[in-house]
């Protein structure tokens, strides 16, 4: 096992009510890595987190800092190097300072050192001014900051976050995410976060684990998973609205040519690593995320370039600084565009130009396309 592997598990299984609800062959986490765990409700995300934190009865082989963890003594030592933050702050009655210091007190840290360490983390989370406040008077964002400070005060090797931003309003959430990213980078803490919100992940995470039905469907770097989902099921969960069946063949320049089924439209796509054709033309599917589709007023893009189409807006939805479009370009296309790209308000029936970057078009392996 590599020296920088902090946490690993082999053949993890969780059974409840006689039914296996979690089955994972192997996962590893490296020092300082931030991993986002996502999936639909009931996928097993929180169960995985609790099993890794030894808070859920399970079977499997666990490794922590290179040591095989078996037996109550080793489990206790490993748990002392971990900390967890939940959706609810779960603060105890008392002040913010008392809550941040409670874990240190349980672990036998003496009074003066305990207060200094607690105050340090209150300051790092920008809530030192709340040290003597009763936690019952705190806002949701303030309470969650106390909860994170309490966890970080233990100086854990591994931090588990179970949907910690769920109940926060957008400005509070954005500020906390930015500060947390800097804090975790500074401390080098290995972090695992369960989240439904895909907008958090590109900013926070190095890697994504997509779970469904108690198993891992895809693991990889954030950009790789979002752009190149392994299956249509994963793509749809990750918000990829543009998925088309069609036929794939080799282009003259080494790229793929993808003919969208029941249309005359052909897309150029970069050839994926390790992807090969089993014949001159195969049936598969292609996809692209809406935010990667460049959408502009009618004459803004040269029409003769590859993957450039003229289309008609069938629906437009204002989303703050963005527009979400449904466009007919000979096939149905969803796109997300900044309002700055449109000097005039776009309306249903307007003609637009769209460009689909070849490097952002993903071709599914034929065996999983459907």
Describe the structure.
With 370 residues, this protein is α+β, with helices and mostly antiparallel strands. It has two domains: 5-232, 3-Layer(aba) Sandwich (Rossmann fold), CATH 3.40.50; 240-363, RNA polymerase II/Efflux pump adaptor protein, barrel-sandwich hybrid domain (OB fold (Dihydrolipoamide Acetyltransferase, E2P), Beta Barrel), CATH 2.40.50. It contains nine helices and 20 strands. The strands form four sheets. Strands 6-7-8-3-9-10 form a six-stranded mixed β-sheet, sandwiched between helices. A five-stranded antiparallel β-sheet has the order 13-12-11-14-20. It has a five-stranded antiparallel β-sheet with strand order 15-19-16-17-18, with no helix packed on it. Helix 3 packs across helix 4 (111-124), helix 3 runs parallel beside helix 5 (140-152) and helix 4 packs across helix 5 (140-152). The longest helix has 18 residues, at 170-187. The relative contact order is 0.11. The mean pLDDT is 92.
- The helix count comes to 9
Low-confidence stretches: none
Helix content: 10-25%
- Give the biggest sheet: 6 strands, mixed
Strands of the widest sheet, in order across it, are: 6-7-8-3-9-10
Q: Strand tally, please? A: 20
Give the distance, in angstroms, between the N- and C-terminal Cα atoms. Answer: 37 Å
Please state the structural category. alpha+beta
CATH topology of the largest domain: Rossmann fold
Q: Given the C-alpha coordinates, what overall shape results? A: globular
Secondary-structure element string: EEEHEEHEHHHEHEHEEHHEEEEEEEEEE
**Which CATH class of the largest domain is shown?**
Alpha Beta
**Assigned CATH superfamily of the largest domain:** P-loop containing nucleotide triphosphate hydrolases
Strand coverage percent? 25-35%
Kindly report the oligomeric state of this protein.
single chain
The CATH architecture of the largest domain can be named as 3-Layer(aba) Sandwich
**Number of separate structural domains:** 2
Radius of gyration: 24 Å
Mean pLDDT: 92
């Amino acid at each position: 096992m590599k020296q920088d592997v902090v946490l690993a598990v082999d053949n993890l299984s969780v059974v409840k009510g006689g039914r296996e609800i979690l089955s994972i062959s192997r996962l590893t986490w490296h020092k300082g890595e931030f991993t986002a765990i996502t999936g639909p409700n009931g996928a097993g995300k929180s169960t995985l987190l609790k099993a890794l934190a030894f808070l859920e009865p399970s079977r499997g082989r666990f490794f922590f800092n290179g040591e095989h963890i078996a037996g109550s003594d080793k489990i206790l030592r490993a748990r002392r190097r971990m900390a967890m933050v939940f959706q609810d702050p779960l603060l105890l009655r008392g002040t913010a300072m008392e809550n941040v210091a409670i874990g240190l007190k349980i672990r036998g840290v003496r009074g003066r050192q305990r207060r200094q360490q607690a105050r340090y983390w209150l300051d790092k989370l920008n809530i030192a001014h709340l040290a003597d406040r009763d936690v019952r008077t705190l806002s949701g964002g303030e309470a969650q900051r106390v909860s994170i400070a309490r966890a970080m005060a233990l100086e854990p090797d591994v931090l588990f976050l179970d949907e910690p931003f769920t109940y926060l309003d957008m400005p509070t959430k954005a500020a906390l995410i930015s500060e947390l990213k800097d804090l975790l980078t500074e401390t080098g803490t290995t972090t695992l976060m369960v989240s439904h919100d895909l907008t958090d992940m590109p900013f926070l995470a190095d890697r994504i684990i997509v779970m469904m039905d108690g198993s891992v469907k895809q693991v990889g770097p954030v950009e790789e998973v979002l752009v190149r989902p392994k299956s249509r099921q994963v793509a749809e969960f990750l918000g990829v609205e543009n998925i088309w069946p069609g036929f794939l063949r080799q282009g003259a320049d080494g790229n793929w040519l993808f003919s969208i089924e029941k249309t005359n439209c052909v897309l150029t796509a970069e050839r994926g690593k390790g992807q090969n054709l089993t014949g001159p033309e195969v049936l598969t599917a292609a996809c692209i995320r809406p935010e990667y589709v460049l959408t502009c007023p009618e004459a803004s893009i040269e029409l003769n370039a590859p993957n450039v189409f003229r289309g008609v807006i069938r629906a437009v939805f204002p989303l703050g600084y963005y527009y979400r479009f449904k466009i007919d370009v000979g096939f149905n296309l969803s796109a997300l565009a900044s309002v700055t790209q449109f000097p005039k308000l776009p309306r249903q029936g307007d003609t637009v130009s769209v460009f689909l970057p070849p490097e952002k078009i993903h071709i599914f392996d034929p065996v999983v396309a459907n």
